[in-house]
Design goal:
Layout (H helix, E strand, L loop, with lengths): L21 E4 L2 E4 L2 E2 H7 L2 H10 L5 H13 L5 H9 L6 H12 L10 H26 L13 H10 L5 H14 L6 H11 L4 H13 L6 H9 L5 H13 L17 H17 L2 H16 L8 H10 L7 H22 L26
Antiparallel strand pairs: 1-2, 2-3
């Protein structure tokens, strides 16, 4: 009698592939072997994008070329801008992004196939995604889209295209930091979805659209939006403290806390929180930090449940006058680099994903005649 196949719900504990891109090693998040803490301190998003896509950090010339490439690819096709103008105002931003990435795929400026062509497509998609988010943001406010500005970094340009004014060094720097922290995270659901699509020998745009679809789901993306929705309920730290104790007594889920792969806290949250406090101080937003800390304190000190990166990130984006429904799209604006790196890697040593399932339906039976069916 053959042994029954094992079953792991959600593929928990199942090794589904090999990667050289990123990993969480004993609580340490590494991109190509570099600890996220060092990358956050010493590099910018363009350097991290280059690292993920090429395997090594860029030198000065390579970084300059990467920046110019992102700027060159930032202009949206006229058809995409026209489509953005016709979409319903109430359309979900992740749905908008999914549709517009699929549409812009018809105007792929990169010729040819192969690894280098797809690497260029990764830069193109990285630039297009930020431009789509910014254009949609402005159109919803009744404003015309603003093109990217030569000479600005990618994060600074994202804010510039949204607000029409150059951001401060701190504002650009903290958005750049969020992009670095969100860029890659091993075989998460959206990355795995992109790799599964790639394993069929589909194209990079289709794989990225699939990644966006996976990230839209609230069990994967959206935690930064949910965390800010929660923080917005309160007008003071005292009010937040009262609520969180009542919520904990009722065993309610507190958004922005806990993580499946970090048992002792998400160090990305600690990195970002330091800059969040600096931003809040510069903007005179002390009350927001009081609310933030009032919820965090009992979670950490009493429940030993630590913030994940989404908890500070939601407030960062809010303080930068970005609406809540663009927070998950901004996650995409960073993770596109990790997805692209995994798509490139999947193509090198590909085998189509085809897992087994345990069938629990009826045993084999004959089809009755139509007149004999109840």
């Amino acid at each position: 009698m053959s042994e029954a196949p094992s079953y792991s719900p959600g593929l928990a504990g199942v090794i589904a592939g090999r990667t050289t891109i990123g990993c969480v090693d004993q609580g340490e998040l590494l991109y190509r072997g570099y600890p996220i803490q060092e990358l956050a301190q010493k590099t910018c998003f363009e350097e991290v994008a280059y690292l993920l896509l090429h395997g090594e950090l860029p030198n000065e010339l390579q970084l300059a070329v990467a920046r110019k490439t992102l700027y060159k690819f930032a202009t949206l096709p006229d058809a995409v801008l026209s489509a953005l103008r016709t979409l319903p105002k109430e359309a979900n931003m992740m749905d908008v992004l999914r549709s517009m990435v699929s549409l812009t795929g018809h105007f792929d400026p990169v010729r040819g196939d192969g690894e280098e062509a797809d690497r260029q497509r990764a830069y193109w998609l990285t630039a297009q995604i930020s431009s789509i988010i910014a254009a949609r943001f402005r159109l919803l406010k009744g404003l015309e889209p603003v093109p990217a500005k030569d000479g600005l970094g990618h994060a600074a340009n994202l804010l510039y295209m949204c607000h029409g004014a150059e951001p401060t060094e701190l504002e650009a720097g903290i958005v750049d930091l969020t992009l670095v922290l969100y860029a890659e995270h091993d075989f998460n659901a959206s990355t795995f979805a992109a790799r599964v699509i790639t394993s069929t020998r589909s194209d990079i745009v289709s794989a990225v659209v699939g990644g966006i679809g996976a990230l839209k789901g609230p069990l994967h993306g959206g935690a930064n939006e949910a965390a800010m929705d929660m923080l917005q309920r309160f007008t003071s730290g005292e009010e937040a403290a009262t609520w969180v104790r009542e919520a904990l007594s009722k065993k309610q889920l507190i958004m922005g806390f806990g993580h499946r792969v970090y048992r002792n806290g998400d160090h990305r949250a600690r990195i970002l929180e330091e800059k969040l406090r600096e931003l809040a101080k510069q903007l005179g937003a002390d009350v927001w930090m009081e609310i933030y800390d009032a919820i965090k304190k009992p979670m950490v000190e009493e429940k030993k449940i630590f913030p994940n990166v989404d908890y500070p990130c939601g407030l960062v984006y809010y303080l930068l006058n970005l609406p809540i429904d663009v927070y998950t799209p901004l996650f995409v604006a960073a993770r596109i680099t990790g997805w692209s790196a995994h798509i490139l890697e999947q193509k090198v040593d590909d085998r189509i994903f085809r897992p087994l399932s345990i069938y629990e339906g009826p045993k084999m039976r004959s089809v009755p005649a139509l007149k004999d069916r109840p």
